[in-house]
Amino acid sequence: MIEAKDLTKIYADGTKALDSISFVSSSKSLTLLGKNGAGKTTFMRILSTQLEPTSGSALVEGYDIKKDRKKVRKIVSSIPQEAKPVGISSSYEHLLMYLTSRGFSIQEAKSRAREVLKEVGLWEVRDKSTDSLSGGMKRKVFVAMALASDAEVVFLDEPTTGLDPLSRLEVWSILKSMDSKLVLTTHYMEEAQELADEIVMINKGRLVVKGSPFSLLEKYKDIVRVEGTGDIKVGRTLIKYVKYADATEYIGKYVIKPISLEDLFILFGGDEELT
Ligand SMILES: Nc1ncnc2c1ncn2[C@@H]1O[C@H](COP(=O)(O)OP(=O)(O)OP(=O)(O)O)[C@@H](O)[C@H]1O
């Protein structure tokens, strides 16, 4: 369970990255969505005890991120957005170091590392220096770490950025098979649709929407997206959202689409409001 209560983060330069966020989530897979700079990474870093909040509190599986920091660190594994394996160590060595630092014995770490490297498709390159791996493979080293950790809660900040479509599907399948609870961020709406039991959308450090992908889309199913006209500009495309019943006047003139997570992102992530 993830519980945030009035969580606020103001960085030293005065940037308010989180503005009194409060919610409870007991879902197996929670996905944070929001525009660049919305506050997702800040939230993940605070919950995984890498960053102190300015005020407010949070619990991870019932443990307080401030008072029970050591316990939280034991039960979580975190893959930061900017994480890149470095140096001449191989992916196998990276996993051994990570797992022994988490308390696995050498023998356990070796056997777990072998198992997981095969599962994520890095077995063939297990002894290669990670410097010489492709960007996607480097990312997979971290997915392997999360998978091997057996952590109760795994935080993944944009886990599939830079992966080719096939590798992305492989990672999705691995993430879905994990026993750990997942808290992830993504900019790919299809990833959110595929992995999220629950979505929390953040805008300017505040929670704007929360619910399962199904319930969110169900709630707004009476609205359609009209492309080619309207006040909302997405790049060079004009968009408007209208009630299904009012869409007849646009038929034949514009492209009309049912509402999707991307539309909720446009509406709730920006300054627009659904009526
Ligand atoms: N160390 C820092 N010092 C000052 N401001 C920061 C710092 N880290 C992040 N910020 C600011 O806090 C806000 C939230 O940033 P954050 O990285 O949490 O957003 P995000 O939703 O993860 O964005 P993205 O999708 O681009 O990764 C932004 O305005 C960002 O510039």
From TrEMBL:
Source organism of this protein record: Sulfuracidifex metallicus DSM 6482 = JCM 9184
Keywords attached to this entry: ATP-binding, Nucleotide-binding
Residue intervals passing through the bilayer: none
InterPro entries for the chain: AAA+_ATPase, ABC_transporter-like_ATP-bd, ABC_transporter-like_CS, P-loop_NTPase
This protein's record includes keyword Nucleotide-binding: yes
Keyword Transcription: no
Residue ranges of domain ABC transporter in the record: 2-229
Protein's UniProt name: ATP-binding cassette domain-containing protein
PANTHER family: LINEARMYCIN RESISTANCE ATP-BINDING PROTEIN LNRL (PTHR43582)
GO MF, one annotated term: ATP hydrolysis activity
